[in-house]
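Internal tracking record. Fields below are filled automatically when a chain is submitted to the structure queue. Please do not edit lines marked as system-generated. If the sequence contains nonstandard residues, flag them in the REMARKS field before resubmitting.
Queue: standard
Priority: normal
Entity type: single polypeptide chain
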Amino acid sequence: MKRITMAHGAGGTIMHDLIKKHIVTHLGGSGSEVPLEALDDAAVIGDIVLKSDSHAVKPIFFPGGDIGRLAVAGTVNDIAVMGAEPIALSCGFVLEEGLQITDFERILESMKQTCKEAGAYIITGDTKVVEKGNLSGCVINTSGIGKRNEALEGNIAEVKKYRSFNSRWILDSNLREGDKVIVSGTVGDHGLAVLSAQEGYNFGSQIKSDVTPLNKLIIRLLSVGGIVSMKDPTRGGLANALNEWSEKSNVGILVQEDRIPIREDVKAACEMLGIDPLEIGNEGKILIGMVHEKAEEILSILKKTKEGKNAQIIGEATKQFREVALETEVGGKRILAPPIGDPVPRIC
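SYSTEM-GENERATED OUTPUT FOLLOWS
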């Protein structure tokens, strides 16, 4: 008899199979514009974007963030990468018996500050308490709604100056041959920060989570225009996000390995632990696909911001092959396969 394992929630191929074969099979079929079965970062009904996200990070406090900041930023970012403006959130707390009230207050204060940064506030919710067990303190569900805005309309108009574009939203399936791919900053920071807190590792430097709401930055980029796809590379990291784009857009992606920004301490820690930084989740980065004519302008704007100072153009879409491929520093190529799961458990 098959049972659920930790790999079923790790963001890779095993989790995707669970969602496609079981969840979508039973719950799909809504007929909405961007439905459940599209498996984008959020769904669309009319001009409204809807997202629900649950967070069970362990531990609930980690270098650079906590479960409260993660819950708000994660939901806001999933709405924003669709091209929508987040306008309101709901919050459901499942609290474990024995959680210290001071820790709960700390989480609430963090959520309040993150909502303020994003400009989207919690307006309804629910609270439950369960017996002491394996929650590590609490689990938080945040849901959010976003609305279509002028920046998205202007962005699409800019895309149409350079190529055909039939979508009303920024979707995983919009990438086409010749489109450029940008990552907005260093990858692997969040997963390594959580791992260091889980296991008590000392990597010789302070690796902090990148968790932050990115909706205001995204609106600024949409105002420049030319963006066709966006994704926050969370569970499964950059490798998983790129492979989702490739599969849904039916296009290959060639990535320059030496262009991918990775902190030296993150790279060293991954080498020591035998894990791939491209498969580790992030919570404050955006993967951006855009028409090649706008890539340098988008990159220039990103580099002038705190969130995007380490941004790089890392590759482009191609019809020469169907997979995601890395071009190495010596000029060879290797396939970047979708990960089975994120090598760091319970990171979000």
